[in-house]
């Protein structure tokens, strides 16, 4: 009898001890989780002090979702007024070069909380029909933004279209102009590859690059071929310099933007007088695609469209050599004008 009572007592003590230990462990875990929920620093100290006329850049970044709703047309006039949103003319334009990396540059600059991009190419200054609609039509094509943000658009055709420099000058003579370039022969082949893909999609045939780039009658470089002509950067830039001083241009290395984007983006931030906000955190290499992708925050990532980074067709090396020799004197002049040298062959 005594033995049974002792056994029952031990069992009760074991149960009570288990409950006590379990409660203690729960309390420890609860306190630990509450500690993790506490802010690392006081709310007032999270932002660096700004002037009264400035909107904190992190606050602008927080409101990107709101801007997205306005872009989709889901906003009333009253909402736009309450949030102090406007459609601004661009303070900077990526004017070219086609197949130089204009889309990648625009998307990467959009990582900056003080930058708002026009999603589509507007083709206002290079299209006579659009230009005839007037500057107000152009402004209404711009995204909603806060007054302290910079709106940027890109239309690569601007760089090579004769009328564009004067038209942009009439809109804003102090505008900042971005030109992204690649090694001229590589850019020309990339240009050809995009057109070729379009032809193949429509089941159409197309000449080989060699036949287009080299005049069959003279065996010299065919400067009438648009892909070749576009790569003569200095010829186009000289036309722009009749209206704008060289200080209003910034040349971006499109080849380096592919392999090492951050230093190029930091140079653009400086040119646009933006505080440095784009960091390595915002850029991560996607091994599957072979390109850097964009990280806006812990939730939202973005990679460029699958059409970017097309595989180039094989081109006869003698043609590549001839093109490089042809572009060489133009490249040297381009370096001299812009003050930026590239390791182009």
From TrEMBL:
Catalytic activity as recorded in UniProt: alpha-D-glucosaminyl-[heparan sulfate](n) + 3'-phosphoadenylyl sulfate = 3-sulfo-alpha-D-glucosaminyl-[heparan sulfate](n) + adenosine 3',5'-bisphosphate + H(+)
EC numbers, comma separated: 2.8.2.-
Keywords: Disulfide bond, Glycoprotein, Golgi apparatus, Membrane, Signal-anchor, Transferase, Transmembrane, Transmembrane helix
InterPro entries: NST/OST, P-loop_NTPase, Sulfotransferase_dom
Membrane-topology descriptor: Single-pass type II membrane protein
GO cellular component entries: Golgi membrane
Compartments where located: Golgi apparatus membrane
Pfam family, one: Sulfotransfer_1
Keyword field contains Lyase: no
Gene Ontology terms, MF aspect: [heparan sulfate]-glucosamine 3-sulfotransferase activity
Keyword flag Glycoprotein: yes
Family: Belongs to the sulfotransferase 1 family.
Cross-referenced PANTHER family: HEPARAN SULFATE GLUCOSAMINE 3-O-SULFOTRANSFERASE 5, HEPARAN SULFATE SULFOTRANSFERASE
Name by which UniProt lists this protein: Sulfotransferase
Origin species: Chelydra serpentina (Snapping turtle)
């Amino acid at each position: 009898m005594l033995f049974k009572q002792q056994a029952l007592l031990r069992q009760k003590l074991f149960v009570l001890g288990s409950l006590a230990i379990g409660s203690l462990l729960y309390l420890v875990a609860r306190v630990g989780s509450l500690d993790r929920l506490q802010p690392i620093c006081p709310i007032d100290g999270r932002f660096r002090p700004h002037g009264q006329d400035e909107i904190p850049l992190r606050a602008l970044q927080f409101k990107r979702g709101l801007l997205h709703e306005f872009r989709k047309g889901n906003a009333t006039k009253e909402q736009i007024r309450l949030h102090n949103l406007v459609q601004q003319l661009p303070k900077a334009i990526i004017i070219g070069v086609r197949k130089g990396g204009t889309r990648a540059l625009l998307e990467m600059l959009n990582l900056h909380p003080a930058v708002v991009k026009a999603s589509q190419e507007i083709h206002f200054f290079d299209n006579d029909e659009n230009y005839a609609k007037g500057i107000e039509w152009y402004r209404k094509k711009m995204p909603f933004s806060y007054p302290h943000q910079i709106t940027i658009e890109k239309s690569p055709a601007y760089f090579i279209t004769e009328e564009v420099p004067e038209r942009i000058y009439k809109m804003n003579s102090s505008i900042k102009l971005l030109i992204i370039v690649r090694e001229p022969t590589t850019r020309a082949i990339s240009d050809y590859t995009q057109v070729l893909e379009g032809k193949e999609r429509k089941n159409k045939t197309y000449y080989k690059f060699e036949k287009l780039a080299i005049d069959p009658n003279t065996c010299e470089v065919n400067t009438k071929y648009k892909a070749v002509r576009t790569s003569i950067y200095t010829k186009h830039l000289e036309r722009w310099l009749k209206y704008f001083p060289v200080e209003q241009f910034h040349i971006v290395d499109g080849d380096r933007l592919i392999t090492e984007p951050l230093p190029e983006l930091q140079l653009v931030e400086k040119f646009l007088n933006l505080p440095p906000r784009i960091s390595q955190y915002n850029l991560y290499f996607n091994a599957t695609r072979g390109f850097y992708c964009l990280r806006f925050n812990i939730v939202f990532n973005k990679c460029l469209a699958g059409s970017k980074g097309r595989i180039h067709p094989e081109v006869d090396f003698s043609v590549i050599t001839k093109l490089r020799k042809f572009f060489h004197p133009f490249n040297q002049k381009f370096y001299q004008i812009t003050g930026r040298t590239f390791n182009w062959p």
